[in-house]
Write a structure and sequence with these properties.
Layout: H1 18-37, E1 48-53, H2 59-70, E2 74-79, H3 91-101, E3 104-108, H4 112-121, E4 126-128, H5 136-150, E5 157-161, H6 166-178, E6 181-185, H7 194-207, E7 211-214, H8 217-222, E8 226-229, H9 241-248, H10 255-258, E9 266-269, H11 281-284, H12 291-309
The structure holds phosphoric acid mono(formamide)ester and norvaline.
Amino acid sequence: MAVNMKGKDILSIHDLSREEIDQILDTSQNFKMKKKLGEVYQPLKDKSLGMIFQKSSTRTRVSFEVGMWQLGGYALFLNANDLQLNRGETIADTARNLSRYLDGIMIRTFSHQDVLDLAEYSSVPVINGLTDLLHPCQVLSDLFTIKEKKNNLEGLKLAYIGDGNNMAHSLMFGGAKMGMHTSICSPSGFEPDPEITRLSRIDAAKTGATIDIQDDPVQAVQTADIVYTDVWTSMGMEKEYEARLNTFSRFQVNSALLEKAKEDVLIMHCLPAHRGEEITDQVIDGPRSIIFDQAENRLHVQKAIMALII
Ligand code: CP
Ligand code: NVA
């Protein structure tokens, strides 16, 4: 039975029920099919989405903007540098004002607390387009992509090799909710946030998934159905770039590492990639890579999210 998600904020996968995630994935499938068939479907006619960006973006911006347009609505790109927000207007007042004009707000920013505050003071639904802590829209798209390739999620094993960052955190929440074993393999000192680990293990206990934190890439990939990686230096951490190159060198997803993995392992990356750092050209462009399908699916999944909550 359909779950009513109208008005719901999409801030973290941890806040979503299994039924809500299933509904997002089913709706995404439906929207993707409609798009491939060239069917015009505009449930968000006359609706508008504001998109606040405090960090750069290629995929998130374009997929939300084009997605909203395909659904019949209008999306406004709001560079935070051009908003009064970056001149001292509070998040709360920004939320109160934008809610008077818009039907939804998407925000990409640094502090996760800012997104929570925006949602608290906004009367329209808020979507987290990435914070330092989480990237839920990416992982909802990733769950859709994995399901598309493997038919199900339950019982699969995903090994994430790299920084215990926003991507690792959302993958842990997504895996836990959907019964997919998730192994995070990071260098010492770069493990996921302990609170995210604790919360994801609580969710995992309900679905039979396991959340494993370790530091041996070979062991992590050996039994994996999916190997996932992300940049070693996330947006906002550029000062640590040189030091991280050194620390993470053992964690590159390359052909030698994949020789230890299953024949049919799938390779994922949220992009943008730093080719030659966390992943080699050979792997990203190789036969096991589903990375560009993953990028495409951002469009279909975010359209589903917007249509369900706005
Ligand atoms: N994966 C992702 O969110 O890409 P962008 O930073 O280009 O939006
Ligand atoms: N961890 C990366 C993800 C980019 C989509 C970052 O935050 O920069």
